[in-house]
Design goal:
This protein has 369 residues and is α/β, with parallel strands linked by helices. The protein has one domain (26-367): 3-Layer(aba) Sandwich (Rossmann fold). It has nine helices and 15 strands. The protein has helices at residues 74-83, 128-136, 167-192, 223-233, 251-254, 273-280, 302-313, 317-324, 329-349, and strands at residues 14-15, 27-40, 49-59, 68-70, 91-92, 95-100, 111-117, 140-144, 152-153, 159-160, 210-220, 237-243, 260-264, 286-291, 365-367. Helix 2 (128-136) links the parallel strand 7 and strand 8 (140-144). Helix 2 (128-136) packs across helix 9. It is globular, with a radius of gyration of 21 Å. Pfam families: PAF-AH_p_II. This is Hydrolase. GO terms for molecular function: 1-alkyl-2-acetylglycerophosphocholine esterase activity. Keywords: Hydrolase, Lipid degradation, Lipid metabolism.
């Protein structure tokens, strides 16, 4: 009797990748666990204090012998794969270009600071392309997971998911997000002074590395209104950028007196009356840009990750375009690299001219009057 045929070996998992940053510096990163004893977590019925995970991203002095950080830590990555309907052994999330624990390079002076807020149900990893680009150009970038509205893994392996978003809890989510950012700004001052509010290992060179008089903020999707509302509540943030985000709350009618930039796709002034009202009440420098054919995910890491995973998801080219838009991913990445950096260069470093007018280098970008 013939032996049964040997089973076919499983195909190797698809390794997703992210494009590397283009600035002159290597990138360091470190995750930190913070606890705010002054606040109860609104989604924890036990009344536990608010816990946050953040990551610091910065130009690195050296990277020898260090490992690059994953896009998501292991348990969160496994949950992310399951949430997207994929088998755990079918795909691996990207490895970033940030070296864990690398010493901080001061670049001749203290580093301007940029804080990042993700979209509803996302994570602090969702705009890693922009974050790494800024760090490679000499910015100190702080990414924040809004616990209960994110996919968050804590150092003990716990994974917190998102509370279902509804009109009933929307105000609580917005309030928690703003309080998260203000708490993180407080802790950055402690870190800059040589303290350690996390108890985690900190990179060499962190003390006095940040210029906390030059702080900007950007957000993707719901991170956009988080940026505007935090600026309204806290004058420490000098400039704000929204990647396809709407606006909510008192800032809509009050406006802002500091620089603000909108990057449009789904969240446009033409489609969202509150955004137009906010725009009319902006009293400082302002700019509204967009890309022809862009979709909401065009301005996130998913513009490159979705095409790589399309075959695993069983998506046709038309279905991929429905998700990430008609913009060629390489061009979307070029815009993600150039325009946030130009915004913070202009308003935190007071240099650069890309935002003066439409550029022939980026013909897909339109300035919206």
């Amino acid at each position: 009797m013939a032996a049964p045929p040997a089973p076919s070996p499983s195909p190797p998992p698809v390794q997703l990748t992210l494009p590397g940053p283009t600035g002159p510096y290597s990138v360091g990163t470190v995750p930190l666990h913070l606890v705010d004893p002054a606040r109860h977590d609104p989604w924890d019925p036990s009344g536990a204090p608010r816990e946050l995970m953040i990551s610091l991203w910065y130009p690195a002095r050296s990277t020898a012998g260090l490992r690059r950080a994953p896009w998501l830590p292991p348990a969160a990555a496994a949950q992310f794969v399951r949430d997207n309907g994929l088998q755990p052994d079918a795909v691996k999330v990207p490895v970033t270009h940030g070296y864990t624990g690398a010493p901080v390079r001061h670049c001749g002076s203290r580093l301007p600071v940029v804080v990042y807020s993700h979209g509803n149900g996302g994570s602090r990893s969702d705009s890693t392309i922009v974050v790494e680009e800024l760090a490679s150009r000499g910015y100190f970038v702080v990414t924040v997971d809004h616990t209960g509205d994110s996919l968050t893994e804590f150092p003990d392996g716990r994974v917190a998911g998102s509370a279902p978003y509804s009109p009933e809890n929307a105000a609580a989510i917005r309030e928690a997000r703003v309080a998260d950012i203000r708490f993180v700004l407080d802790k950055l001052a402690v870190l800059n002074a040589g303290g350690n509010p996390s108890g985690s290992a900190l990179p060499d060179g962190l003390t006095d590395a940040m210029d906390l008089g030059s702080v900007g903020m950007f957000g993707y999707s719901a991170g956009g209104p988080t940026t505007a509302s935090t600026m309204y509540a806290d004058g420490r943030i000098k400039a704000g950028l929204s990647l396809d985000g709407p606006v909510f709350g008192p800032v809509t009618d009050a406006g802002l007196d500091r620089p603000y930039m909108l990057v449009d796709a789904r969240a446009s002034r033409a489609a969202i009356p509150e955004l137009q009202t906010f725009w009319e009440h902006l009293r400082g420098w302002r700019l509204d840009i967009g890309m022809q054919g862009a979709k909401h995910l065009t301005y996130s890491d998913y513009v490159t990750l979705i095409p790589q995973a399309a075959s695993l998801l069983g998506w046709s080219p038309e279905q991929v375009e429905q998700q990430i838009g008609a913009v060629v991913p390489a061009r979307a990445i070029a815009v993600q690299r150039a325009y946030p950096a130009a915004f913070f260069d202009l308003h935190l470093r007071h240099r650069g001219h890309l935002l003066d007018r439409p550029s022939p280098l980026f013909p897909e970008v339109r300035f919206i009057p």
